[in-house]
Amino acid sequence: MTLVEAGERILPALPPRISGAAHSELTKLGVRVLTQTMVTSADAGGLHTKDGEYIEADLMVWAAGIKAPDFMKDIGGLETNRINQLVTEPTLQTTRDPDIYAIGDCASCARPEGGFVPPRAQAAHQMASLVLHNILAQRKGKPMKAYVYKDHGSLVSLSNFSTVGSLMGNLMRGSMMVEGRIARFGVYLTLPYAPDCAARLLQNRPDDAGWTHQPGYSPASEAALIVISLRVLRRDFLAYHAVQCPSGA
């Protein structure tokens, strides 16, 4: 099996550490991972690369990322990019009409550190919250906010073999790298607990919007919630391991 990627690394929308871990796991599974390799053509027997290599294949799967529908190209005279996304200002207003906003996969929003906001569900959710704030601010003649993408964690499933990713992301003012059995089994087994824990973390933690602490809040209580979550993860993982491996192997 061969995975061909034109960019410098696979999973470019995710942090380098996660894409690197995924690359390593795929290699261990016997997958040949080619980066910085462009496909120029394909035929019934395989595909040709720009480097002149011919890769034989019985089955070829084309996964070239996202593209907005063709009707979006220059829609209403708005500026679009090569994949038909609406180009936006940092406030998520379109560049040619400040009364039109774009969020999610149809928006092309540049990041201050370079590159663009990745087309991910958590980005769309964050954008929606910001656009609500900015529309109200615009109507009241108040300053609007610039969108800053915050990565709250990612998980990449490698079928039945493994999983890599990071948990919690900025909710923990950092991230915790997870991979292998713990990521695959423990994280998914504790998903029923995650929404409640995350909701309480968000409820108790102040941010730039001026949220206030709930009664009884302290940094220790936030840390305690995280510890409880990790203990639940460990408990469920050990329970799963006991069922799958009764001998303790």
Automatic annotation (TrEMBL):
Catalytic EC class: oxidoreductase
Biological processes per GO annotation: aerobic electron transport chain
Keyword Cytoplasm: no
Family annotation (SUPFAM superfamilies): FAD/NAD(P)-binding domain (SSF51905)
Stated name of the protein: FAD-dependent pyridine nucleotide-disulfide oxidoreductase
Annotated InterPro entries: FAD/NAD-bd_sf, FAD/NAD-binding_dom, NADH-Q_oxidoreductase
The UniProt record lists the keyword Phosphoprotein: no
Keyword vocabulary terms for this entry: FAD, Flavoprotein, Oxidoreductase
Gene assigned in the entry: ndh_1
Enzyme Commission number, as recorded: 1.6.99.3
A Pfam family hit: Pyr_redox_2
Protein family according to the UniProt entry: Belongs to the NADH dehydrogenase family.
